[in-house]
Amino acid sequence: GLWRMGDVGPAGRTALTVALRDRSGPVRAAAAWSLGEAGDASAIPALEALRADKELLVRNAAAAARRRLER
To answer: Please, which residues have CB within 8 angstroms of residue 6's CB and are 6 or more apart in sequence?
Structure first.
């Protein structure tokens, strides 16, 4: 899955940020998780925007990713 990609580089982080706006909740959640795993704190604003996502899965994945990035 997306969460096993490791260092994705700038292009990968851009693609994951775009995926945060996907129609599919599981895709948004996986992208959020992966951004947290990538360790790039510049993703925090995009993850913050998911606090209002309609799906709990997405909100939880984004919150977990933010916690990892804020360490």
So the answer is: 37
Query: CA 11 from chain center: how many Å?
Result: 14
Q: Which H helix or E strand runs over 60?
A: helix 56-69
Which residue, among 52, 54, 5, has the nearest Cα to 31 in the 3D structure? 5
Q: Which residue has the higher pLDDT, 5 or 71?
A: 71
- Look up the pTM and report it: 0.86
**Amino acid type, 48:** E
User: Terminus-to-terminus CA distance in the chain, angstroms?
Assistant: 24
CA distances from 14 to 4, 9, 17, 43 (A): 17, 9, 5, 9
Q: At what angle do helices 25-38 and 9-19 cross, to 10 degrees?
A: 150
